[in-house]
Amino acid sequence: MIIDRKLQILLSIVDEYINTGNAISSDLIFNKYPNLGVSSATIRNEMVKLERENYIEKAYKSAGRIPTNKGYKFYIENFSVDNYSITTIRNKIDKIFSKRSVNIEEMIEGALKIINKATNTFLIAKEEDQNYFVEDLKLYKINQDKAMIVAISSSGKLYNEELNIDNFKFKDIKNSFKIISQRLIGTKISEVKEKSSLISTLVIKKLNLVEEEFKAFIENLIRSLFPSDEKYYGINSLVNIPTLKEKEKLERIFKMVENKTIWDLLNSHSETLIKNKEKNLTISFDFDQLKDISVINKVLKLNNNSLKKITIIGPKNQDYKKILAMINILDENIKD
């Protein structure tokens, strides 16, 4: 693909902004990118055009320019990767996957640790159960104060959750569970949580119960049936994101992670910059509660037909070349 001079300058601007985090001037591009083969004045004129076309914008309290979302989108769709620069990482990941005696989950975890260390980003790995459904649900009374729920997925996985029942009658819980089972068995696991409010309302109506506390108990019970198998890497890297340096914002993120509600944030309104169905890849910017955040989502298809969703959270100017190249290396190894 041939890119004209103006857009070659744009790629250089974004490269430099990712490397330094500083607003970019025409003189800096002229001095650091002599391969462009144009004068500083020409670069300045082309930057005026790029700003007019909304690829770059004036930085706050600076004479330089920074990329807009449109500029990032063009960059991500058109940059070229220097394969030599990621040779060491490729060799490390290839080495992990050469040990075929090791289970696939352990190999992926090893590779994700390498990627996380090399990129200094916050990374979440989550098993996706989209293709599986609720096979069976069982309720067992342990004693007067406790009960146990056992949930079985069509993948063969078994989940159990211990409940404190000392505030409610076991008869009500047992009758509620019959309704829950009728409604959920055969349901896709990915749809269970979103049905929790509707089913808990139905339980209250059918059993003629009026306690809001019991409704909340039933709703939480349903939401806990199939807990996400999530692993977090490099959460402390969030302190390096400029827009999260305020203590309150950081505390909110850490609390979300502790309470497993980070997905509520990631599902909130944002601008989807890149959506590549073929590669199972999306990149989103500017979430409701957190501006200037970039989130890369990649769904990996494993050999056992299950899915693993990799989410990388960082600043807008995170190193997309390096991160996407590493994800591709991981994907290639899984497919081999």
How would you briefly describe this protein structure?
The protein is α+β, with helices and mostly antiparallel strands and 336 residues long. It folds into 3 domains: 5-78, Orthogonal Bundle (Arc Repressor Mutant, subunit A); 84-129 and 229-335, Beta-Lactamase (2-Layer Sandwich); 134-223, Enolase-like, domain 1, CATH 3.30.390.
Describe the structure.
The protein is an alpha+beta fold. It folds into three domains: about 5-80, Arc Repressor Mutant, subunit A; about 85-130 and about 230-335, 2-Layer Sandwich (Beta-Lactamase), CATH 3.30.450.40; about 135-225, Enolase-like, domain 1 (2-Layer Sandwich), CATH 3.30.390. It is about 45% helix and about 20% strand. It has twelve helices and eleven strands.
